[in-house]
Amino acid sequence: MIKELGITKGAFYHYFSGKQELGYCVVDEIIAPRYLDHWNQLYSYVGHPIEGIIERLMALQRDLPGKNIKLGCPLNNLIQEMSPLDEGFQQKLNRIARGMHLAIQDALIRGQKARLVNPDADPEKVAFFVLSTLEGAFSIAKSFQNRRPFDFSIDLLINYLRTQKNSK
Questions:
Q1: Domain assignment of residue 48, given as a range
Q2: Is 119 strand, coil or helix?
Q3: Does 104 have pLDDT greater than 80?
Q4: Are 118 and 166 in contact (CB under 8 A)?
Q5: Distance CA 101, CA 144 (A)
Q6: Do the domain assignments include residue 6?
Q7: Are 75 and 31 within 8 A, CB to CB?
Q8: In the chain, how many domains are there?
Q9: 25 falls within a domain
Q10: Minimum mean pLDDT range among 66-70, 103-107, 113-117
Q11: 7 in a domain, yes or no?
Q12: What is the pTM assigned to this prediction?
């Protein structure tokens, strides 16, 4: 990476005291905005909240780079590798996951208030299910080195979400 930046190692460490500080910066400046901006679009979504969540999932499915199949989800990889080793990483990564969860949960709550979402659905649990399925789909696709498990999982998740629409 230092070579790609065209700087010396000394210049690099002028800005970062070490790998940990660099990692924190990558999480804060690159990873967090990418994931939170994607899911925070639900706060301004004006259509049916379930369709807003589905649209976010379909955007991920549509725009999924091949490297995410080969290498997995960057957020998921960091959570798996760094959370048990470093409390700072754990807190930063948890903040991202919590933000994603809250955006989905809030959309479902708003949908229930508007009588668009099944009143028996538990927004907290459904939001965890969405995220768990999404991140699991990334992991299984990485394991198989094949996009199909990801697509199958997202398609089934979308079908499940549509069952949570209120049938007035």
A1: 18-163
A2: coil
A3: yes
A4: yes
A5: 27
A6: no
A7: yes
A8: 1
A9: yes
A10: 66-70
A11: no
A12: 0.84
